[in-house]
Amino acid sequence: MADPLKIVPGNVSGNFFVDTTCINCDTCRQLAPETFVDAGQFSAVFHQPKTDDEVIAATRALLCCPTGSIGTKERNEAKVVRCEFPLLIEDDVYYSGFNSPRSYGGNSFFIKSSSGNWLIDSPKFLTFLAEQMATMGGIKYIFLTHRDDVADAQKYAEYFSASRIIHRDELSAQPGAEIVIDGYDAQKFETDFTIIPVPGHTKGHMVLLYKDKFLFTGDHLAFDPAGGHLYAFSDYCWYSWAEQTKSMKRLSKYDFEWVLASHGDRGKLSSPEMKKQIAQLVKTMEKSE
Asked: Virtual CA dihedral for 40, 42, 43, 48, nearest 10 degrees?
């Protein structure tokens, strides 16, 4: 629980606040950019929410903060707002919420599919959230993009008797995974799903393409909503930036409209614009090799 005695410097006075346990992971700024700002070492409240929509967004951020660093000085509606999760993004794709500190606040997503539901990377394991997912049909597969963001995947796998999918090069992070992907060629996996290995950030990093519309990118690729453009994390490339550049180039042959990142924000563009921006990003990455 956030401590009002540890409010970060720069937090404007009012009901919502951030305390110094914040790891500045960006979760709150993604969910409520009109309320939270990057204040350097921490995030901070720069504008107290006023409208109902702003209050709901700030409350979502409070709930999803991986370290519980957001609080209110007065009563809030967290018990009501938490029932929104998993939170609909578009069509049958949802944001799981409740980001885990074990993945440094990485995002997790949920797909409601007629052939069986998917969890993409893992949020915190909360019985409440698992029960919410159960009402939506449970989980058949847990797709793990890479070793950094497995979080509580094993607990969700056990709860739902779900099969975890991970690349062999990442297997040490989830040694009991039920489905292990070998090699670096893309492969179809049931109807509407394509698994695409993209070595770079880590050696066995993978992305998941759903319905040629939604690309779940882990830490390979993210979207900047302020600038409206795609980017990659050169400072957080643990395996090979040159390999990540090659992997990025291969994505240009795929059609998709959404980038849904574990770290970094999500965003939507037309498929032609995505291809154009991928090509531009590859050029930028090649210059920085």
From this structure: -100
